[in-house]
């Protein structure tokens, strides 16, 4: 599986909200498969070039 492309962030929307949308799209596109765990907070933060606290907030909001 190839590494997903890093998102381009929009300035007027909180990054954690945009990250939630990215996660949903990647799930629907089957980048993250049903029987597999989502990336760790640290790994997703590295992949998306964001703070781990931002990823944690996005995961918390999604209920993951």
Account of the protein in words:
- It is a single chain.
- By secondary structure, this protein is an all-alpha fold.
- 52% of the residues lie in helices and 0% in strands.
- It is built from 3 helices and no strands.
- The protein is globular, with a radius of gyration of 11 Å.
Rg over alpha carbons: 11 Å
Shape: globular
Count of strand segments: 0
Task: Give the low-pLDDT segments.
Answer: none
Main beta sheet strand tally, sense and closure: none
Mean pLDDT: 92
Task: Name the helicity range.
Answer: 40-55%
How many DSSP helices?
Answer: 3
Main structural class: mainly alpha
As a percent range, the share of strand residues is under 5%
Element-level helix/strand string: HHH
Cα distance, first to last residue? 22 Å
């Amino acid at each position: 599986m190839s590494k997903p492309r890093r998102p381009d962030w929009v300035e007027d929307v909180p990054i954690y909200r945009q990250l939630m949308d990215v996660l949903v799209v990647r799930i629907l596109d089957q980048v993250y498969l049903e029987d597999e765990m989502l990336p760790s907070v640290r790994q997703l933060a590295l992949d998306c070039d964001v703070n781990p606290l931002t990823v944690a907030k996005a995961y918390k909001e999604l209920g993951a």
